[in-house]
Amino acid sequence: GGAHPGIARVIEAFDEIVRSDGGGVCFGALEGARLRVSYRLGANPDCPTCVMEPDSLGLMMHDMLREHAPE
C-alpha cells in the first residue's frame, strides 16, 4: 500500500507552502481516483489574504497531481 510517490511529493510540497502561516497538509485517504487530504488552515495576522483558502489549495493540488501522479 501507501500513496503513490507522486502524491506524497505533492502533499509535501503544499505542506511546506502553508507551513509558513502555521498551516499543514497531510494525506487523508485515497478513494479510487479521489484523493482526500487534511488541511489545517494557518493564520498570518500581517497578511490575512496570504493564507491559502481550502478551495485554492484543492485546485492547485489537483493541477499538480495531474502532472506528478496522472493515474
Overview of the molecule:
The chain is α+β, with helices and mostly antiparallel strands. The chain contains 2 helices and 2 strands. It has helices at residues 5-19, 54-68; strands spanning 24-31, 34-40. Strands 1-2 form a two-stranded antiparallel sheet. Strand 1 and strand 2 (34-40) form a beta hairpin. The chain is elongated and about 40 Å long. The relative contact order is 0.23.
Element-level helix/strand string: HEEH
Structural class: alpha+beta
Lateral strand order in the biggest sheet: 1-2
Number of strands: 2
Largest sheet: 2 strands, antiparallel
End-to-end CA span: 15 Å
List keywords for this structure.
about 70 residues; alpha+beta; two-stranded antiparallel ribbon; 2 helices; elongated
